Amino acid sequence: MLNPVNTQGIYINVPMTDWALLKELIRRFGWQAETREQLLERFVNSRSDKKLLTDEEIMEEVNAVRYEK
User: What's the whole-model pTM score?
Assistant: First the structure.
């Protein structure tokens, strides 16, 4: 298992003809790899499902706290 403290993330473009070789090296060294699409999907899935507040809702909250309305 890789220790996140001692790793360096990189992004490289690899010809599809060399991808099988690179995947084998990744497996042998115990590294981790993900495609740009997998990285984006992981990021999207990590985001909160909460609805964002509107400017008006934010101002209502500020006014309620500041002026105890």
Answer: 0.51
